[in-house]
Amino acid sequence: MDPKLKLSLTVIAATLGLAAGTLAAPASAAAPHDVIPSTPVTWCDAPSAAPCISSVTRAGSAITSSDSTWDISGTYFTLDGASEVQWNVSKVGAAVHDPATNENYSSMGPEEAGTAWSVTFDLGTAVIPRVTSTYGDAVDVTRVFNTDGTFDVTVAGNVVTQSANAECDVNTPSGVASCPVQASADVTYFGGEVSDFGQWEDAGQRNDFYGLDTWTNVEVTYIPPTINGDPLQIIEPLANSYKLATGAVFSGFYHVVIPNAFLVDMGIDDPSSIDPAGVDAQIGTGSVAVHPGASSVQVDATGITFPPTTSPALTPAAKAHAHSQQLKVKRGTITPKVPLRVKAKRSSAHKAKVKFGKVKPRGSKINGYQARCVAHHQPTRKGKTKHSPVTVKHLARGHTYKCQVRAKSKAGYGKWSKKDKA
């Protein structure tokens, strides 16, 4: 089994509270503690039953099952109710030797970094491709539900350069993975996992995850991503060496596509109206951008670094490790935007009508409006309505009021508008 896939299995096992296996194994040997029953995923024309590999392209050209340069393989397994396919691409004869562990790791060759690949799987009925996790860049996932009830999935993306994983420790007392400051070996990689996320007990929420895709070049991540809370949130621990084996500072990224149905589970009842503020995404280093779309939101965390740990309370051994990071994605600000074009006008001595332009929701449907009018030495008067204008009653004769309005949604009230005299 490929060492990176073994790491993924280890992290899954740790997440589910199961006994974790070894972190890495030589590319030419089986991992000694892999106790999860599994089936090899090979080419469909082998012939092989689904799940199987139906097509592969490299830089736009087809790679076939008879190709002797590239090895495209995977593993199908079930774990705690989940059905998953883990897969990777490697180049024959391009294994990288790690002098720190005296082990060899499958790789694609340094010249392959940035090359575009795509791998298509016939999943049959074995795996519903709800969630994908990929080690790659510029990843695009295409799901096809066939008329016979089977699924196909294509994962397309670019090859990334990563640190080898043998020196990273996911079994630390704190539960936070730790990696050495500088990696002892680098590999070029394209691979990952397709999962039905069957370990999630709530069937309704589990179906809402359909279309959740993540991709990264960071060495240690949780596959599939860590989801918890009520409303739901994503908390993704990340660990990597500060420097690659070449000595260059590693710059990491982590991208996640969150489908609208999942956004509803995050407490965003109207995802179609969300703006970037509607998703709160934070990372320890680097930057985060939120990009709403028609059917999903994409969160891009880039420029992630893993500087050496410097706390004086740590032992010398601990200081020799890079500081881990954590990406948090949760509901942000989804209250309505501020009403514009507010005009207040007295309709009688004791009433005012407050008109305003159309207010944009941003993640939560607007269900009403509130206006208030204030005057010196007079009580504040308020009014509510479902649409413009809002009538405010019980105004004092002969006093000038300043009126403003705000919109209300399931998430609460938005900010007050500018004031207008009545």
In short:
The protein has 422 residues and is mainly beta. It is built from four helices and 31 strands.
Compute the number of helices: 4
Q: Shape from CA axes?
A: elongated
What is the residue-averaged pLDDT? 88
Instruction: Give the % helix.
Output: under 10%
Distance N to C terminus:
75 Å
**How many DSSP E strands?**
31
Tally of separate domains: 2
Give the structural class.
Answer: mainly beta
Query: What radius of gyration results from the CA coordinates?
Result: 27 Å
Q: Roughly what fraction of the amino acids lie in strands? A: 35-45%
Main beta sheet: strand number and arrangement?
10 strands, mixed
Low-confidence stretches: 1-34
Description:
By secondary structure, this protein is mainly beta. The protein has two domains: 3-331, no CATH class; 343-421, Immunoglobulins (Immunoglobulin-like, Sandwich), CATH 2.60.40. The protein has four helices and 31 strands. It has helices spanning 3-15, 203-208, 260-265, 316-319; strands at residues 38-41, 52-58, 61-63, 70-79, 82-91, 96-98, 103-105, 116-124, 131-135, 137-145, 151-158, 160-163, 179-180, 186-195, 212-216, 227-228, 233-238, 252-259, 279-282, 287-292, 296-304, 321-322, 325-331, 343-348, 351-355, 366-374, 381-385, 390-392, 402-409, 412-413, 420-421.
